Structures are given as C-alpha cells and as structure tokens.
From TrEMBL:
The keyword Protein biosynthesis does not apply. It comes from Modestobacter versicolor. This is Amidase. GO terms for molecular function: amidase activity. Residues 82-539 form the Amidase domain. Pfam families: Amidase. The keyword Hydrolase applies.
Length: 574
C-alpha cells in the first residue's frame, strides 16, 4: 500500500512519545518494586519488537490475569514492573500500530500505589495492578476523551462510571485506545481504525491490513500486548469485528449490564461497552469489575436481581451436552466468503462437536427488515444522544451536532479522507421524541431482532430441544486499509453476524477460531450469541471453545501479504 495511504498525525506521535517518556521517568522514590525485580523496564525494551515479551522468563502474550495475580501476591512481580513493560512495548511498537491514542502520564505512579495497597491490605479485586486500555470514547478525567475528533480535544469530562470502577478496583488505566472516529458514524465511506486525532490503526498480524472498528485500538492493543485487557464499545459489530480480525476475545454484553454513563454515544438503544482480551478468563474478569447497576444509566436497572454475575467462574465443560445453533451461510453469502474462511468455520463446528456439543444448522429470520430499519433509527437517536452528551460535557467544544458539522467543514484534517454524510443525515432527522414513526421503527426492529434469536433458541416443545447459543462466523479476513479520497475505496467489509444481537441488545462474544487469507496470515473468529442476560453462559461456552480450539497465535507484524480483490459493498462496523 502506498505510504500516503496510512495518515498518521505527527502531533499525535510526538505527544504519545512524550507521555510515555513522562510515565517512565517516575522518581525512584515512588516506585515499589517486588524483591528481585529487574527494574521498571526489566527486559521489556530489548524484546518489545517481537511478538513475545519475556518478563522474568515469562511470556507476556500468554499470561492471564490469574497468573499475574499469583506472581504479584507471591512477591515475584509488581504492578510497576508489569506496567513499565507494557509502556515499553507501546514505545517500541505503537508507531507502526497506531493503537494507543494517549498514555496516562501517571501510570507508574498509579501502579506504585497499587503495589503499596497490595502490600498493606491485599488486592482490592482481581484487576489490582493490571494495565487496562480504554477506548477513547470512554470519559477520563486524567486524559482527553475525543472519540477521535479534533473537535473534542479541549473537552474536560469527569471519569465515566466504568473508569471509576476500574480505578476503585485497583486497575491501572494505562492509556486511551485509538478508534474509528465517532465510532464509525460520521461518513458513509469511512475507513475503520482512522481518526483525525490518532491517525490509522494497523493490524498487528499484517500491517497494511485493517483492524476493523470501531474498537480498533482496543483490539490491536491487547493483540499486540500493549495492555493486558481493554475496554471497547459496540453499537453493531464494533467489539466483535475487531476482536475477530485481531485474534482476541471480545464480548458485547447484554444492553444494560454495563453502565454507559460518560461514554460518547451513537444510540442509547444499542450502545454498550465491553471487554476485549487475549484470553476468555481475562475478558470475564474485566466484565465482572465493570458490570452492575448505576443510577446514571436507567438501562442498568433492568439487570435481574438473581443474575449470575460471577462471570469469572468459568465452566470449561460448558459445551459437553450443549446444543449450539450453527448460523449457516446462504448460497449468496458463500459466494462472497472465501473457501478458506468457510473452512475455518467448518473446523470450528467440528471442534464444538469434539467438545461434546450438538450442532444444529439454523437460519435467523427477519434480517432484511432489521437491516432496513437500523440506520434510520440510529441517525435520529444519534442526533438526540450526541447533543445530550455535548451539553453535559465541560470544556471548549461544539455545543451540538450542528456545531460538529461546522467544525469539520472548517478543519484541515477532519474531512481529508472521507466525508460526514451520516452527520448531515442525522442533523436532518427528527429525534424520536418528536417523531412517532422513528420510535415505531426502533420498537419494530428491536422486536424482530429479539424474535430472530428467541425463536431459533426455542427449537422444540420441551427445554431439552432448546439451543444454548448460536454460533456464526464473526469475520472474513482483514482487508487492505484504503481511503476514499486516496484510493477511491474505503472499507471492504464482506460478512457479519453481529446485527441480531446488536439490535436486540443481547450478548455476543467473539473467540479466535483460526487463520485464512493470503499466506494464512489473517485471524478469523467465531461469535457465540444467545438470550438476554446470558452473558455468563456465553462466556463459559467461549472459554470452553477457546480451550478446545487453541486457535490464537501471537501477531507476526508482517508488512504485507500482497493484495486481494475487494467487494463492492463496504459495511463498516459501528
């Protein structure tokens, strides 16, 4: 791909390098390292250019949070050393990856405080001392929250509810992850992983390939071991697609399980934050910390009182005796999806069988009507919800959507690679409170999306006939990153199964399943989705499949594997 096709703002790179340098220059008096630790950076700096980072002879890519906690409890590792190692990887790798938009300059101070707390009182939670990346549409008081837009560079929000919960749990907010600007809801021909603030995020497997979006930096950040776990957000596909294309686990929770307070919105009818991690157990631990009711988000009041919220207590025999619906491709879809990608999905179904599950071929109804109504509903809801967010967020920034449109039209960077057609359509739309037809559309597509899943799960007259979950292909291999104004083409999105769970507000988790594409170098995931509030059960299934398939491999950072043809109908995730 041509060099000009990967725009990376020099200002962002310089600011990021300075922030990491500031974090790494914490005075020695503030650092509380465990006995025998090799210093803040240890061996990280020398090994950060490879996919495997030795940390006291351990493979950081493979380490899980429980393993890290065991070592910290035993005094063989400290949060300061762990955080310093991740900061060193950001320095070494992120200039090529563009996954981290900003770094917390107090990350090592926070890590030292965590180490002191552990020594005095013990860990506050399973995330004590664990570095976490937050997608840069999650509000943070210590760092900017921009949604990738230069219009929000001077916003001054407080911590989002989930940010506060992470800090109270002892997690180290190491930085903010780059994203598709405005969560891929600004231009019809957007390029996933690009933002005017952060530049372009690249796949760590093949650098000229797209990481999908909009949680691009979150997916790449954990895939490349720039943090242990990350928070992404999804309206439709924005957690599961970058999870699939970057070979990590990503959970879009049930709508209302995780507070959206302090998160830049697309629509309160579909938006949710969720965990992204290299390991299912880490995603479950992260969810356990951030989930729960919040007076600032009315949707969380619907969490059942008897919900199983012990998400990290995973059952690795969950597939034994389970009945899993297999969402098969139609002949038209199969004609678009490459044979090697279909082979990954077929192998995944065989692995489900090997783990004791019974696969049941299914098709989900109502998909055309759901798809036809989703974008009109989101446009109206975006206008309502982004205006409300801007109105309640302190700092110097446009007051509303109309102001954002005007800002972009005058800015020298914002519209350089694609336009703002979705912004303009949203501004022209009537908000739901003023238009019964908009609300009727939302009610109808939500009803149909829920029915499409509920009807498939209920396969027969008795509970023994029901399905435990539905599995589908998360993604086709990553396309080459292109820009509308440079290449005449943007995202070359082929296929997705994210829509029903997204519109229904039901949980959906993507797990690595294999590799396809040129040279077999590009990750492919499978997605398990199921009933409302079945997040714990889906995480059990995901963890069992992860254990059975063992499909994840660490990134290789290949420059390219060559070009392949692109389909005609790009559909970027939001």
């Amino acid at each position: 791909m041509r060099a000009e096709s990967r725009p990376r703002p020099l200002r962002r790179r310089a600011a990021l390098t300075a922030a990491v340098a500031a974090a790494l220059l914490v005075p020695a008096s503030t650092v509380s390292a465990a006995p025998g630790d090799p210093g803040v950076l240890g061996t990280a700096a020398g090994a950060a250019g490879s996919g495997t980072l030795p940390l006291r002879d351990l493979d950081l890519d493979a380490l899980t949070i429980p393993e890290l906690q065991d070592r910290m409890d035993a005094g063989r590792l400290s949060s300061v050393v762990l955080t310093g190692a991740y900061l060193a990887r950001i320095v070494a790798l992120d200039d090529e990856l563009g996954a981290v938009l900003s770094v917390n300059p107090k990350a090592l101070e926070d890590a030292a405080a965590s180490d002191r707390t552990r020594q005095r009182k013990g860990p506050r939670s399973p995330l004590e001392g664990i570095p976490v990346l937050l997608k840069d549409n999650v509000d943070t008081e210590q760092m900017p929250t921009t949604a990738g837009s230069r219009a929000l560079l001077d916003s001054e929000p407080d911590d989002a509810t989930i940010t506060r919960r992470l800090r109270e749990a002892g997690a180290i907010v190491i930085g903010k992850a780059n994203l598709s600007e405005w969560a891929n809801f600004r231009g019809a021909d957007s390029t996933s992983g690009w933002s005017a603030v952060g530049g372009q995020t690249a796949s760590p497997y093949v650098l000229d390939r797209n990481p999908c979006g909009s949680s691009s930096g979150s997916g790449v950040g954990v895939a490349a071991s720039l943090a242990q776990v990350a928070i992404g957000t999804e309206t439709d596909g924005s957690i599961v697609c970058p999870a699939g294309q970057n070979g990590v686990v990503g959970l879009k929770p049930t709508l209302g399980l995780v507070s959206r307070d302090g998160i830049v919105p697309i629509s309160a009818e579909q938006d949710t934050a969720g965990p992204m991690a290299r390991h299912a157990v880490d995603a479950a631990i992260l969810l356990q910390v951030v989930a729960g009711t919040d007076d600032a988000d009315a949707a969380t009041a619907e969490i059942p009182a008897d919900l199983d919220a012990d998400f990290a207590d995973l059952d690795l025999d969950a597939l034994q005796g389970a009945r899993i619906g297999v969402w098969t491709l139609t002949p038209e879809q199969a004609a678009q999806v490459e044979d090697d990608t279909e082979a990954v999905f077929a192998a995944a179904v065989k692995q489900l069988e090997a783990a004791g599950a019974t696969p049941v071929p299914v098709q989900l109804a109502y998909q055309d009507e759901i798809g036809a109504g989703e974008t009109p509903a989101l446009l109206a809801e975006f206008k309502r919800d982004v205006n409300a967010y801007l109105a309640q967020t302190p700092g110097e920034h446009p007051a509303d959507l109309a102001g954002l449109i005007e800002f972009n039209a005058q800015d020298p960077v914002e519209l350089a690679y694609f336009g703002q057609e979705l912004f303009e359509q949203a501004q022209a739309a009537t908000v739901p409170a003023e238009d019964p037809a908009v609300q009727a559309t939302r009610d109808r597509i939500r009803q149909l999306a829920r029915a499409s899943i509920d009807e498939v799960l209920a396969q027969g007259p008795g509970p023994e006939d029901d399905l435990d979950a539905v599995v589908g292909l998360t993604n086709t291999p990553a396309w080459q990153t292109r820009y509308q104004s440079v290449d005449g083409q943007a995202d070359a999105f082929v296929y997705s199964t994210s829509g029903p769970a997204a519109v229904a507000g039901y949980p959906n988790v993507s797990v690595p399943a294999g590799f396809a594409g040129l040279r077999g170098a590009l990750p492919v995931g499978v997605s398990f989705f199921g009933a409302r509030w079945a997040d714990a059960e889906l995480l059990d299934i995901a963890a069992d499949f992860e254990d059975q398939a063992a499909a994840r491999e660490e990134p290789g950072y290949l420059p390219t594997v060559g070009a392949d043809p692109q389909p005609d109908n790009p559909q970027p995730g939001t």
